[in-house]
Write a structure and sequence with these properties.
By secondary structure, the protein is mainly alpha-helical. Helix content is about 80%, strand content about 0%. The chain has a single domain (about 15-220), classed as Four Helix Bundle (Hemerythrin (Met), subunit A). It is globular, with a radius of gyration of 18 Å.
Length: about 230
């Protein structure tokens, strides 16, 4: 991930870059869908039939205070992690980094609040949000302290860890889709809300654990991220 936007020697994008591109696209698609669903209700003061959407509409400043800076961060972070971009546009890299760090810290802090205020998936989602949201914020803070101390390689390693958690939102959505498909197959279209609620928190734990584990594997595989 340290060079997620780099290309291989053949000029083709690296597999990790392709995967990250797909995951960021998934986040964007769900964000746009969320916005299209919520905006009419927020503007008209109506309540949606979907109880999940109802929570977003009831707390729009909190929900979108988390989502909007989170999307900005996920769009900019791959560029920041690109060796080519850093080496060619170092001043811009530093300035953009400050903006993205602020966006990420705000989004991460509010994700923890959201996990406490309204976790649609119940206790499993709340605990996952607290654990991984806190880890995300901790990685960002440690990355900031590292770069302030002149430890560039350590800074980038902590930023890789933070980005892995951030983009894990997309993998959560993939797991939710898998569980939804299984539930539809087993239960049909009727009475699937409660089983989906139960698996929502499981999707959080699976998706984010996978990303944290992959980040650590990647960092062990590339011990010197000083380029």
């Amino acid at each position: 991930m340290a060079g997620v936007a780099q290309q291989g020697r053949t000029g083709r994008p690296r597999p990790v870059a392709v995967v990250i591109g797909v995951l960021v696209t998934i986040v964007l698609v769900f964000f746009v869908r969320r916005l299209v669903t919520d905006a009419p209700h927020v503007l008209d003061g109506t309540v949606p039939d979907d109880d999940l959407a109802e929570k977003y509409v009831a707390h729009p400043w909190l929900a979108y205070g988390h989502m909007v800076p989170g999307v900005v961060y996920l769009l900019g972070a791959p560029l920041q992690l690109s060796h080519r971009f850093r080496s060619r546009h170092y001043t811009l890299h530093r300035r953009l980094g400050r903006v993205l760090l602020g966006c990420a810290l705000l989004s991460g802090a509010l994700s923890v609040v959201l996990g406490i205020v309204f976790a649609w998936g119940g206790g499993a989602e709340t605990t996952a949000t607290l654990v991984f949201g806190s880890w995300f914020v901790a990685c960002l803070v440690l990355a900031f302290l590292a770069i302030r101390g002149g430890h560039v390689a350590q800074h980038r390693r902590w930023m890789v860890r933070a980005f892995a958690v951030g983009v894990g939102v997309a993998t959560i959505r993939i797991w939710v889709g898998v569980f939804t498909g299984i539930e539809l197959g087993l239960l049909g279209m009727q009475d699937r809300t409660m089983p989906l609620r139960a698996t929502f928190g499981v999707a959080f734990w699976l998706g984010l654990t996978m990303h944290v584990a992959f980040a650590e594997w990647w960092l062990r595989r590339t011990p010197a991220l000083d380029g």
